[in-house]
Amino acid sequence: MIKGAQFVEYKGKSIYYVNYSDIKTNEEFMSVIKQSNGFREKVKSEGRKNLLMLVDISGSFVYGDVLTEIKKAGKITKEMTLKEAVVGISGGKKILLKIVQSFTNMNLKVFDTIEEAEDWLVEA
After folding, report:
1. 52-63 in b/e burial notation, b at 16+ Cβ within 10 A?
2. Antiparallel, parallel or unpaired: β 81-87 and 4-10
3. Measured in whole angstroms, how far is the alpha carbon of residue 31 from the centre of its chain?
4. pLDDT, tens digit, for every residue of 52-83?
5. Is 84 helix (H, G, I), strand (E, B) or coil?
6. Cβ(81)–Cβ(16) below 8 Å
7. Which residues partner with 87 through β-bridges?
8. Which of 56, 71, 83, 94 has its Cβ near the most Cβ atoms within 10 Å?
9. Under a CB-based contact definition with an 8 Å cutoff, are residues 98 and 69 in contact?
10. Which stretches does DSSP call E strand in the chain?
């Protein structure tokens, strides 16, 4: 799976998938965020709403400027999403998630696997 944002199909439904998995440096994270921001702006300009969103941060480390950029992106993406799921949250990442949620007002549901998250997103 490529890094950054894209649409994926799952059980006949489209999921706005953001892959931030296995990123170890701020430089790489900022590069992926830049791609994701461009994709998000394109989706927003198309007027798409009620997106099913899945964010995978498994094996990644978020800190400093990256956290600031994720909070900014989250605020914009929130306007377009119906349901939001995240994979890869454990330990200290739970604290970071609470910080992002407090700044973005996003109500992310945490899952252990991508398949569990996808199943929840596409259920009626």
Report:
1. bbbbbbbebebe
2. unpaired
3. 15
4. 999 998 988 777 788 788 777 777 787 889 99
5. strand
6. yes
7. 56, 111
8. 56
9. no
10. 4-10, 13-19, 51-56, 81-87, 109-111
